[in-house]
Amino acid sequence: MDMIDLINKKKYGQKLTNEEISFIIKGYTKGIIPDYQMSSFLMAVYFNGMDATESTSLAMAMRDSGEVLDLKDIKGTKVDKHSTGGVGDKVSLVLAPLVAYLGAKLAKMSGRGLGHTGGTIDKLESIPGFKVELPLNQFKDQVNQIGCAIVGQSGDIAPADKKIYALRDVTATVDSMPLIASSIMSKKLASGADAIVLDVKVGSGAFMKTKEDAMSLSRLMVDIGKQAGKQVTAILTSMEEPLGHKIGNALEVYESIETLEGHGPKDLTEVVSVITGHLLKAAGIVESFEAGYELSKTTLAEGKAVDKFYEFVGAQGGDVAFIKNKKNLLGNTKRHEIVATSSGYLEKVDALNFGIAAMKLGAGRMTKEDKIDLFVGLDLKKKIGDEVKIGEVICILHHQDKGLKDAIELIEKSYVIGSEKRELKLIEETIV
């Protein structure tokens, strides 16, 4: 095979075979195929696309470029979830202990935040002592014993994807559906789970801005998962406003504990219950999604899974006493209040601006090397549809002076208060 021939083939919109795609990925990973040829190939894919079979071959080839976790030692169906990234998305922190409490096995590898989206690993690191790296045997033993573990993504998982993503970033080929889907699924397929729920965010605070794009991405990822022999479900969830009330690492741990205690935000509780319902059905714990959903909602409302969260934190070295006194998670930050300049109903917010504002305060990274402040962030006192009165506090900024002026400007222009009470549809679609 010759790389120039394969570039030409895709340039003219022809379908590549599994062997040809494997040749490209192996050659590029080993340094045999240079960046300039891979860049040309990526641009050809950008303009001419790939079908589900090609996308699956690409995901599998990237998966096989590194370590593929063998989780056979964990008893039962292994479940996992993946979010495409949003603002205030702390679903994994609530879902892991909930799923484990209800009898499923969740073995999860998560990432760090970059840009306006937060990372589960950063949030967990706001708990003193919490270990985000575990030897594989200890990782599997923990899942067997208590039902869940969350660790940082290994550098050996899908190295081809990391190398290709870095190239996509500088060649304007990031926003290609087959490349996005294959990138996400290569890591999920390498992580060893049997059943996966994909939480595809759509709206101003998400990478997918329109429902049409989110649907296309979801269908392609579900197709890839099924062709790879996995149980995969995708749900489209709204990111027109941040999920929950709190944005920022320790603040989101605080809100996760509140949710597990039975008094969390309605939107966060709903998304967690929907995903858990699908995972419980996939694991054979319930006969239907509806039964799993109701069981999840009841368990959260009654605060039954919060002790499983403390058990999970303790198993990974975290200071349980520290987080049981939730006020510790608020840190010693300064507070700045944003107040409403008119009365009415909150009709719209710019979720992206909230994520950027939190990043300006120090809660997120612009580059992977940036150091973050684990305790700064935002606390939204009003959500879409809520009544607002002039002079009422609608948002509190937890800060240490860094980026405060920029954050205030972003937040103040992110609220639209009008005369209509608007209902936000949280779950847009389910794709199986």
From TrEMBL:
InterPro entries: Glycosyl_Trfase_fam3, Glycosyl_Trfase_fam3_N_dom, Glycosyl_Trfase_fam3_N_dom_sf, Nuc_phospho_transferase, PYNP-like_C_sf, PYNP_C, Pyrmidine_PPas_bac/euk, Pyrmidine_PPase_CS. This is Pyrimidine-nucleoside phosphorylase. Keywords: Glycosyltransferase, Transferase. The keyword Transferase applies. One of its GO terms (molecular function) is 1,4-alpha-oligoglucan phosphorylase activity. One of its GO terms (cellular component) is cytosol. One of its GO terms (biological process) is pyrimidine nucleoside metabolic process. SUPFAM superfamilies: Nucleoside phosphorylase/phosphoribosyltransferase catalytic domain (SSF52418), Nucleoside phosphorylase/phosphoribosyltransferase N-terminal domain (SSF47648), Pyrimidine nucleoside phosphorylase C-terminal domain (SSF54680). The keyword Ribonucleoprotein does not apply. The enzymes which catalyze the reversible phosphorolysis of pyrimidine nucleosides are involved in the degradation of these compounds and in their utilization as carbon and energy sources, or in the rescue of pyrimidine bases for nucleotide synthesis. It comes from the Bacteria. Residues 345-418 form the Pyrimidine nucleoside phosphorylase C-terminal domain. Coiled coil: none annotated. Belongs to the thymidine/pyrimidine-nucleoside phosphorylase family. Homodimer. It catalyses: thymidine + phosphate = 2-deoxy-alpha-D-ribose 1-phosphate + thymine. Gene3D superfamilies: Nucleoside phosphorylase/phosphoribosyltransferase catalytic domain (3.40.1030.10), Pyrimidine nucleoside phosphorylase-like, C-terminal domain (3.90.1170.30), Transferase, Pyrimidine Nucleoside Phosphorylase, Chain C (1.20.970.10).
